[in-house]
Give the backbone structure.
Amino acid sequence: MTCACEIQDIMEKVLANHTAAQKDNLIPILQETQEALGYLPPEAMEKIASFLGISPGVVLGVATFYAQFKRVPSGKMKVTVCRGTACHVRGGARILKEVERRLSIKPGETTEDMEYSLETVACIGACALAPNITINNDVHGQMTTKKVGEIFSDRTRESD
């Protein structure tokens, strides 16, 4: 987690690149803030609202409308499971269940140790490799539950 003083310092740097009068900079400011902090904490969104002279509710509304914005910290490793047609037909649901079991989280959640975050997407765009997952930007294709176990072997629970 980032402390309040670090958030303050980062926000000063982000906002120094923008003009307060330009309210149409909200999305770029949100993007830069998330890139710098990894997510959009409430303190940062309040600072952005104050800087742009808009309501914190407007900032929150934009941050919640667009799926790209995260309001909770993400894990170091972002695991994305494809739910596209090719992956579904080739066992994607089993792959997702095994990832959930290994990490003990559901899509949209992060492990307690902040190592992994789990998401699903409609299509990764690597259909020839179905079923597949990505870990950060690395595609892992032709997944099986056994391969999931090998990838996340350090996460094996006592019940295995």
Q: What stands out?
A: The first strand starts at residue 77 and ends at 82. DSSP finds seven helices and four strands in the chain. The longest helix spans residues 4-15. The two ends are 31 Å apart (CA to CA).
